[in-house]
């Protein structure tokens, strides 16, 4: 897994509108790079709804939210529309999980990302890693603002 102090691996993936989005697009702001296992599941939906509901506070901290899933674009688009998600949800569907694997958070047993968030500074350096011990446990939301608050 990518560790604190390392540069986040670069990537380009497609969002729900099929536009290419690169990690470099978020340079200059702090970024929560949120890997989720499966859309339309209670824990993933709960986590992202909390992020959606705290987006103004995160924006006040000069932070972007970027979500990565190994799910196809149409599913991500339907999920985003259903929940009113306005942050990018990127599909790492094919080649399956290539970016998730580059970050070291691919779960071979289920073929999806582990529940892990990389907190990046304005230069794309990993400053914190927030993860849950298993797929059935949500990340502690309060840790996001705590991690962002200590980044200059």
Folded structure, characterized:
The chain is of the alpha/beta class. It contains five helices and nine strands. The strands form three sheets. It has a five-stranded mixed sheet. A two-stranded antiparallel sheet has the order 1-2. The mean pLDDT is 97.
Characterize this entry briefly.
Helix content is 28%, strand content 24%. It is an alpha/beta fold.
Major β-sheet strand ordering: 5-4-3-8-9
Helix content: 25-40%
Strand content: 15-25%
Mean pLDDT: 97
Secondary-structure-based class equals alpha/beta
Q: What is the count of β-strands?
A: 9
Low-confidence runs (pLDDT<50, min 5 residues)?
none
N-to-C CA distance: 24 Å
Order of helices and strands: EEEHHEHEHEEEEH
Compute the CA-based radius of gyration: 14 Å
Shape annotation = globular
Count of DSSP-assigned helices: 5
The largest sheet, given as strand count, sense and whether it forms a barrel, is:
5 strands, mixed
């Amino acid at each position: 897994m990518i560790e604190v102090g390392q540069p986040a691996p670069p990537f380009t993936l497609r969002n729900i509108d099929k536009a290419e989005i690169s990690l470099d697009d978020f340079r200059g702001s702090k970024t929560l790079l949120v890997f989720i296992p499966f859309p339309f599941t209670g824990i993933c939906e709960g986590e992202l709804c909390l992020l959606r509901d705290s987006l103004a506070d995160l924006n006040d901290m000069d932070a972007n939210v970027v979500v990565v899933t190994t799910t196809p674009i149409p599913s991500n688009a339907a999920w985003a529309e259903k929940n009113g998600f306005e942050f990018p949800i990127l599909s790492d569907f094919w080649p399956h999980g290539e970016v998730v694997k580059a970050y070291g958070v691919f779960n071979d047993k289920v073929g999806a990302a582990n529940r892990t968030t990389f907190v990046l500074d304005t230069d794309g350096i990993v400053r914190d890693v927030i993860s849950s011990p298993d797929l059935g446990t949500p990340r502690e939301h309060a840790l996001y603002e705590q991690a962002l608050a200590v980044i200059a």
